UniProtKB/TrEMBL annotation:
InterPro entries xref list: TPR-like_helical_dom_sf
Protein source organism: Halteria grandinella
Highest rank taxon of the organism: Eukaryota
Entry protein name: Tetratricopeptide repeat protein
Length: 525
């Protein structure tokens, strides 16, 4: 995703492929525009720039400062028109709206029978694809035409249009209620984070119950069911009730598998559903089910029939590599996990303007954790510093746990040159957090004491902190704090004097044996 301070036209031009640039020039030539036209000169100049520089455009007299804003707006519009004509950007929504536009043109020319024929065919397709908003617009235009012009079938048509309009209106009401609820919960998750008190929990449940009690699930069609499952996933994410997040994430994804044509119609929501499902399966730690679902996901999103636009490809990239690294984490395969880092970074560079900073920072934290597990502590710190030095909008919890990873790496490497200063900086950062809790301060206190006690006393420090982590893991509001970085596994490895990889593999063996039944029970409950 482009940063807000970047010029939108510059970002759009830089996002164009060689094929799209060639098509734009062909489109301009078809318009019969002189090659020296100012907006084409502006396109060529911006295309050559590495960073947007308005002064160069003015110095080369492509435009005056006063005219530049209008010229850029005109160029921006022409590029979008050209892209709209590109087959790679065609999708069923654009095609449906194009047919609706054609019908409007025919209606304005007085060719109502031709307009009605196009509208009827387009409406049928829209209803098949569960695109009720477009279907509603089509019916509105049909009613306008039928009410103005006498046709032989007006009596039957009127009843049919009234019935369709009433039915779609009811369905749109359900969609509006559920989409509003989903958006509200998603907004709560981004702005306030996960619930940490009973009061916050009660507030979320009140928001949810007020809306959801109005919904009769049996009357929902595909789109309403999708919003219904989304609302449940986001509610349970907020409440940190992962067994129910898992249940509704499964239903979200399986809704698409039961309606295969909708995967092609709604590729973004198919990817998002899988993102949540794969993330929760990672938290459960059942590697067999995680790998099975990951394989199915890759089969579908890399099939020839799946959407191939840049937005979809950037989402596939995030889900694929986050999950791939998660699989390495669950298996304790840190050394092999670091081998995919160059590949990830190469693709990150290509997608930098299409993905927001926070998602990049999650990848950097995982890369840092991967290097930590492979005992390359200097590399771990290098990637972790990318996160805490980011100027973008990164969630506080992510920044805090990145700092904890750096402290772990500094301790392991014996590099305590600026250890105390980093502790002070982390404490200062924590005090500025919106909702710091006991876990945050206890973690800082542990690392502070660790550097102040004699080596013979460090075992006792680890033992005391392990007890506190046990208590935190039993508290539903602190549990998520232990999921960013497996600090508990690291502490236990010190107490048992074994490699942290052995702790992780032991957890995998346990979860393989017991957790598959738990997951199945949760899906059916």
């Amino acid at each position: 995703m482009a940063e807000l301070h970047k010029d939108f036209l510059f970002v759009l031009i830089k996002s164009l492929t060689t094929s799209e640039k060639r098509q734009f020039r062909l489109y301009v030539n078809r318009l019969g525009i002189n090659v020296d036209a100012k907006f084409l000169l502006l396109f060529s100049e911006i295309e050559k720039m590495k960073e947007y520089d308005e002064t160069i455009i003015i110095q080369k007299k492509i435009s005056t400062k006063q005219q530049l804003s209008n010229l850029k707006a005109h160029l921006y519009k022409q590029i979008l028109v050209s892209l709209r004509m590109n087959p790679s950007h065609q999708n069923y929504r654009i095609q449906l709206r194009e047919q609706l536009d054609f019908a409007n043109i025919l209606y304005q020319k007085g060719l109502y029978k031709q307009a009605l024929k196009i509208l009827d065919k387009t409406k049928h397709t829209a209803l098949e694809l569960d695109e009720k908003t477009i279907a509603s617009e089509i019916i509105d235009l049909e009613k306008v035409i039928e009410s103005q012009f006498i046709t032989r079938s007006i009596e039957g048509r009127a009843e049919e249009l009234i019935r369709q309009s009433t039915e779609i209106s009811k369905q749109n009401h359900y969609t509006t209620e559920l989409s509003n609820l989903s958006l509200k919960l998603y907004s709560e998750m981004l702005t306030h984070g996960y619930v940490k008190t009973d009061e916050e929990r009660a507030e979320i449940m009140n928001i949810f119950n007020v809306q959801i009690r109005k919904i009769n699930f049996d009357k929902l069609n595909f789109t309403e069911k999708l919003w219904y499952f989304k609302a449940h996933v986001w509610k349970n994410q907020l409440l940190q009730e992962y067994k129910y997040t898992l249940k509704y994430a499964f239903q979200w994804v399986d809704l698409f598998h039961q309606n295969q044509e909708m995967i092609m119609s709604h590729p973004v929501w198919y990817i998002k559903g899988n993102t949540y499902l794969l993330k929760i399966l990672f938290l459960y730690g059942n590697i067999d089910m995680l790998e099975d679902r990951f394989r199915k996901f890759n089969e579908i999103v890399h099939s020839s029939s799946f959407a191939q636009n840049e937005n979809v490809q950037s989402l596939i990239f995030l889900t694929h590599y986050n999950t791939l690294m998660n699989i390495h984490f669950v298996k304790g395969e840190f050394f092999s996990g670091t081998k995919i880092v160059p590949e990830i970074e190469l693709k990150m560079d290509r997608l930098r303007d299409k993905i927001d900073e926070h998602h990049f920072m999650i990848l950097y934290l995982k890369i840092a954790a991967m290097f930590f597990g492979s005992k390359k502590f200097k590399e771990s710190i290098r990637y972790a510093l990318k996160v805490i030095e980011s100027k973008g909008n990164v969630q506080e919890d992510l920044l805090f746990h990145t700092r904890i990873l750096i402290l772990m790496a500094k301790y392991e490497s014996g590099n305590d040159e600026d250890y105390d200063d980093f502790i002070k900086a982390t404490l200062k950062f924590t005090k500025k957090m919106k909702k710091p809790d006991e876990f945050h301060f206890e973690s800082i206190e542990f690392f502070k004491n660790l550097n102040n006690v004699a080596p013979t006393q460090q075992f006792e420090s680890f033992r005391q902190f392990d007890k506190k982590l046990d208590l935190f893991s039993e508290n539903e509001y602190y549990r998520r704090s232990l999921l960013y970085i497996d600090i508990h596994g690291w502490v236990q490895s010190k107490l048992r004097n074994v490699d942290v990889i052995e702790i992780i593999k032991g957890k995998v063996r346990y979860k393989r044996k017991f957790q598959i039944q738990v997951i199945i029970v949760n899906l059916n409950s």
